[in-house]
Design goal:
The protein contains no helices and eight strands. The protein has one domain. 0% of the residues lie in helices and 53% in strands.
């Protein structure tokens, strides 16, 4: 059932959460302002983000912003992402 308010989940570090099946595309934002940290986001068994964030390569790498198709998965999890602030939002 699609809601009037788009679905979103936000947090920091490692987490496991459920994405509604009707959400078939998501926008992923992640931020890590320090030296270097991995950010991995999985959707069921598929890895949809595997990035290194931080200022190791300059200011441009502190942020991750990208849209991803997630048509059939429901369980999402962030891994290896200590202290990374992130948000996953429904794209309509």
């Amino acid at each position: 059932m699609i809601t009037t308010v788009p679905w979103e989940k936000h947090g920091g570090g490692n987490d496991v959460f459920t994405k509604p099946r009707y959400v078939t595309s998501v926008m992923v934002h992640a931020y890590y302002p320090y030296f270097s940290q991995s950010f991995v986001l999985r959707c069921d068994s598929d890895t949809i983000v595997n990035a290194v964030l931080g200022r190791i390569y300059g200011d441009a790498n502190a942020n991750y912003n990208s849209m991803h198709a997630t048509p059939s998965c429901t369980q999402m999890r962030t891994e290896f992402s200590k202290d990374v602030q992130w948000q996953v939002s429904e794209v309509r």
